[in-house]
């Protein structure tokens, strides 16, 4: 009974699928969870608050301005109470309007205020007409929320209330329950004592004020690690090279551009960290002297770039470890395990994550990854292709075990 004793806050917004959420609330209660329900006014046009108060066995919260019944006059900070009470907030069905409001930080009703204030995991289960769901505005809002660390449960495809067929149906109650159980399992605050420093993304080395040497790293793997660790209660600092990704919730982010900048930030922040995960694709070379002005094209001439090596940040950390857990990544195109093992030893790491372009060529920018963990004794654990968020959690499990042994 993974949900026994957990506090689940259910947010219901306006949509025909609101009726299904009654069954969902009943299942949550049956599974031993404590359930409270917040409804929007639009939701109450589809299902009455009485339905949800009967099923959850508690009054339904709707009004941001309702006065405290016990004290009479005082306006309670109900949104804070509810937001901190919850172990998990599930918004189902999540309407296009509520999704848009949350994506843009609006707070014009009790549910959006609670969502903005909630420090714990939030699941959104979009359900609407297929055209609304597929509209690029809705898709963009969902992508934005996913990057920030909200969990989006994709809608099912089938007959919709409008008569259309397509994606937009609220998934069945069993699927909602399975999704909730998975997130609750990953949201145990088991990493509360971990102070984690993660790096992510590429570094850029200037050729001139306009051009640079970079690489194809999207930063998604490092951001997923920061996100998963924060959800498990760790204190997380993320040093990020240039990416377009949103900062995950409850993560402190430091933006850098060059390897030199990343090195400075990492060495400073590493002093406080109990574990460092270097997921960044750090440039190995930089132009010796970046041109102060834009290099102009001259007929028949091809400028030669003279490069020099950048400092190896991870190797520097390996030399001054002081009980920290150090994790590196190795991106290899051939002989992956052998090369990764060499790096593990050379850089004095506890664990290395091998990304093999041979077995997973589409890793750049992808939402999934296929990696092998290699430990100090040379032991390899090969994972199947998984969402980067799940890879992140498996990696954090290993870091947790390494720290417990210290
Ligand atoms: N790394 C680093 N500083 C660098 C280069 C790499 O901290 N200047 C880190 C990366 O973040 C990664 C690990 O070292 O965690 C391995 O990086 P990789 O580029 O694969 O290894 P290199 O040692 O640079 O070897 P090669 O480029 O020959 O594969």
Could you explain how this protein is built, in words?
The protein is an alpha/beta fold. Helices cover 35% and strands 23% of the residues. It has 14 helices and 21 strands. It has helices at 18-30, 41-46, 49-56, 78-85, 96-103, 110-117, 130-134, 136-148, 173-186, 220-231, 259-270, 313-319, 336-346, 388-404; strands at residues 7-12, 34-39, 88-94, 122-126, 151-152, 156-159, 165-169, 195-200, 205-206, 212-213, 235-240, 251-255, 275-278, 285-287, 307-309, 325-332, 351-356, 368-369, 371-375, 380-382, 386-387. The strands form six sheets. An eight-stranded mixed beta sheet has the order 12-11-8-13-16-17-19-20, with helices on both faces. β9 (205-206) and β10 (212-213) form a beta hairpin. The chain is globular. Bound molecules: cytidine-5'-triphosphate. Cytidine-5'-triphosphate (CTP) binds at residues 259, 278, 280, 282, 284, 310, 312-314, 328-331, 343.
């Amino acid at each position: 009974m993974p949900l026994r004793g957990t506090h689940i806050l259910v947010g219901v917004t306006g949509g025909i699928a609101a009726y299904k959420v009654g069954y969902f609330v009943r299942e949550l209660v049956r599974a031993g969870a404590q359930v409270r329900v917040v409804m929007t006014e639009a939701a109450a046009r589809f299902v009455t608050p009485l339905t949800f108060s009967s099923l959850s066995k508690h009054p339904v919260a709707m009004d941001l301005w309702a006065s405290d019944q016990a004290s009479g006059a005082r306006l309670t900070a109900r949104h804070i109470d509810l937001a901190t009470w919850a172990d998990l907030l599930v918004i189902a069905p999540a309407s296009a309007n509520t999704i848009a409001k949350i994506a843009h930080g609006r707070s014009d009703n009790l549910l959006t205020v609670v969502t903005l204030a909630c420090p714990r995991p939030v699941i959104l289960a979009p359900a609407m007409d297929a055209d609304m769901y597929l509209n690029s505005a809705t898709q963009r809002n969902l992508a934005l929320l996913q990057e920030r660390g909200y969990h989006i449960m994709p809608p099912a495809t089938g007959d919709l209330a409008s008569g259309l067929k397509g994606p937009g149906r609220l998934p069945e109650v069993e699927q909602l329950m399975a999704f909730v159980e998975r997130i609750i399992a990953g949201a145990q605050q088991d990493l509360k004592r971990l102070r984690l420093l993660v790096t992510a993304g590429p570094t850029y080395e200037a050729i001139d004020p306009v051009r640079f040497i970079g690489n194809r790293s999207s930063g998604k793997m490092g951001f997923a690690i920061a996100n998963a660790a924060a959800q498990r209660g760790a204190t997380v600092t993320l040093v990020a090279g240039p990416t377009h990704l949103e900062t995950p919730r409850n993560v402190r982010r430091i933006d850098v551009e060059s390897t030199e900048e990343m090195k400075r930030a990492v060495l400073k922040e590493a002093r406080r960290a109990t574990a460092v995960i270097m997921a960044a694709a750090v440039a190995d070379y930089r132009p010796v002297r970046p041109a102060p002005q834009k290099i102009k094209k001259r007929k028949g001439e091809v400028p030669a770039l003279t490069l020099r090596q950048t400092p190896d940040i991870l190797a520097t950390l390996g030399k001054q470890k002081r009980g920290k857990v150090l994790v590196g990544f190795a991106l290899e195109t051939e002989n992956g395990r052998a090369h990764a093992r060499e790096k593990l030893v050379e850089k004095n790491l506890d664990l290395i994550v091998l990304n093999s372009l041979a077995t997973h060529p589409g890793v750049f920018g992808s939402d999934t990854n296929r990696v092998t963990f290699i430990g100090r004794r040379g032991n390899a654990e090969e994972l199947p292709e998984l969402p980067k968020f799940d890879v992140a959690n498996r990696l954090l499990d290993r870091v947790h075990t390494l720290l417990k042994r210290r």
